Amino acid sequence: MKKPVKTDAQTKARSRGRPIIVATGKRSKPRPALKAKGSASQTEAAVDLIRSHIIDLSLEPGSKLDEPLLVNHFKLGRTPAREAISRLIAEGLVNSLPNRGGTFVRNLNLVEIGEVIFAYQLVETVMAQLCSFDDPNLVEDLEEVQARYIEQIRSKSFLGITSVNEEFHLRMHRSIGNALFYEFALSTHRHVRRLLVLLYKLENAAKSILEVQLEINMSEHREIIDAIRRSDRVALSMLLPAHAQQAQTRLLNVMNGNSVPPLSIKRSAIESLINAK
Alpha-carbon distance 105 to 75, whole Å? Predict the structure, then answer.
């Protein structure tokens, strides 16, 4: 039986394109209506719910996202639904396309993926240079986040794994003390999460590949924490960009058919799925 999808809020509470996927064509069951606790809290809950479904790809890249869908399928009130769409447009996860007659989940084609990977490598490279070793709680906080990251890996919750991974990286970004750059990093990591969920789902077809990748992620996080503990700028300047570049390497491995042999997916087939209208 398929496990219910957890939103980011549920994950945190518990622990402290066309897409390159094969759609089932089935809609999930309608979600229970959000309980009213005021307009602001309803909107926040709606944004978190829809954002989670965009990130975990259950709302497919390129699919239409409108008020009737949110009201009828997700059981949201009209005002929270309308405000959630506006917020997600501002976050860049939803696009308003009047010429196509509405709002749509942001695509995840090769161009979009390239932009995400570029931004990801940029923010991590800058962070490697600016991450503050003088932040007295940084190492302790990262170790606590890492412990929860391992818990999510054990549960094989891709949404949870990417949520806590985002928290790990944003904690380092917060040490820089630049609000504008932090907002850019936050926006980037939300898009990175969707790409990582996609990669995990593809790699999940070969369990051994997924297990190896998760172990690599945990190991690299430990190395990053150790470098910060030693105040080793040179090591951190190598580790963080290489860590970010993994997303690109993993994607290329999948497209070349090197890392997920059981799928027998060739580059042309994946590109066809990516670019399908």
Answer: 19
Do 133 and 254 fall within a single domain?
yes
Percent of the chain surpassing pLDDT 70: 78
Q: How far is CA 219 from CA 79, 135, 216, in A?
A: 45, 23, 5
Residue appearing with tokens 């990977």: 117
The pLDDT score that the predictor gives to residue 35 is 46
Q: pLDDT at residue 182 above 80?
A: yes
pTM: 0.78
Provide the residue range defining the domain that includes 82.
Answer: 33-105
Which of 69, 87, 105 represents a domain boundary (last residue)? 105
